[in-house]
Design goal:
Layout (H helix, E strand, L loop, with lengths): L7 H14 L4 H10 L9 H4 L3 H9 L2 H4 L4 H25 L12 H11 L3 H9 L4 H25 L11 H4 L6 H21 L4 H7 L1 H7 L5 H8 L11 E2 L2 H4 L11 E2 L11 H9 L5 H18 L5
Antiparallel strand pairs: 1-2
Helix pairs in contact: 1-2, 1-12, 1-13, 2-4, 6-8, 7-9, 9-11, 9-12, 14-17
Length: about 325
């Protein structure tokens, strides 16, 4: 097995997402795992692992996977996404000396296109569409994966002159060039509203499952020292239950990608406890072996208890 596939980054990202989504058979699942590794081109895997590009190329030409339903469309979309991510990396490399303290300014339509491509998982999206999932919902959920990742990246992206960050690209930031807590909270709420229906109404759909793995990926990969940052920043978090609301991307941002403050009451809101009554009901329905309850504690309750203590261990 290629070393690139068994890093925490890949296993708990591309691997776990595909295992949760499923495939037609094990061979196709493995092929999908490998081709979705195109995402890690931007993380420099092609520099760290000599076999990386061959791995993706071979999986992309796996005749068995290509001939499964939607397999051909999936592989074509992966090639398109890889073209984008390689082009973006090359563009940044050419201009990196001139990017310090700069952030891309995008209007709403451009942001939707770019954030969709930034997921680097176009094959996954194309397969979902071919299998009959709603196109608009698939695009919305793919777009959400950008802020879902970028919320952890804000500080590092400022320091590393990354010109694309879904929080920093908003007009709320680019118009003044000032990154304040007040503005970041406003942008965070806007993106939270756009993901609300995905996690309550579409949580069993393929792209929603991919988005649901984002934070387990952050934790397992220790992305930007995830727990350290959560602990150090906990004093600034809201301590009251959030008002659970939802909205579409075009609702929360105006045409210039400026937050509007608009939202609607979420139809399937929970009581806001940890765990909430909806999670408790789900855990009770799988209570025979206790695994789901233990998993929830490890990924949600335990980490929150740890950072809320405010002490480095």
């Amino acid at each position: 097995m290629a070393d690139a596939l068994i890093t925490n980054n890949a296993l708990f990202g591309s691997g776990m997402a595909n295992m949760l989504i499923g495939a037609y058979d094990p061979e196709t699942l493995y092929s999908n795992y490998c081709t979705d590794m195109a995402f890690y081109y931007e993380h420099g895997y092609h520099k760290a692992f000599p076999e990386f590009e061959d791995l993706i190329r071979q999986a992309g030409h796996d005749n068995h996977a290509v001939l499964t339903p939607s397999g051909m469309e999936r592989k074509a979309a992966i090639e398109f996404g890889l073209t984008y991510i390689k082009g973006k990396a090359a563009l940044e490399e050419r201009h990196k000396t001139r990017l310090a303290n700069k952030m891309a300014s995008l209007d709403r339509r451009a942001a939707q296109k770019v954030f969709f491509l930034e997921s680097s998982l176009l094959g996954m999206a194309k397969e979902a569409i071919v299998r009959g999932f709603d196109c608009a919902a698939v695009m919305n959920d793919m777009i959400f994966s950008s802020p879902g990742t970028d919320v952890v990246d804000v500080g590092s992206d400022l320091n590393n002159s990354e010109i694309l960050n879904a929080f920093l690209n908003t007009a709320d930031i680019t118009e003044t060039g000032i990154v304040s807590e007040e503005v970041l909270r406003r942008v965070y709420d806007a993106y939270a509203y756009t993901g609300a229906r995905m996690f309550t109404e579409r949580w069993t759909e393929p792209i929603a499952r991919m988005c649901a793995t984002l934070y387990t990926w952050h934790i397992q990969n220790d992305r930007h020292r995830f727990f350290r940052r959560a602990l150090l920043g906990y004093a600034k978090t809201r301590k009251t239950p959030a008002d659970q609301r939802e909205a579409d991307f075009d609702d929360v941002f105006d045409p210039e990608l400026r937050t509007t403050g608009f939202s609607r009451q979420l139809k399937y809101a929970c009581n806001g406890n940890d765990p909430c009554e909806q999670v408790e009901g789900l855990v009770r329905s799988h209570s025979k072996n206790g695994l789901l309850s233990d998993l929830w504690w490890c990924l949600v309750t335990g980490p929150v208890e740890y950072v809320s203590e405010g002490a480095m261990n």
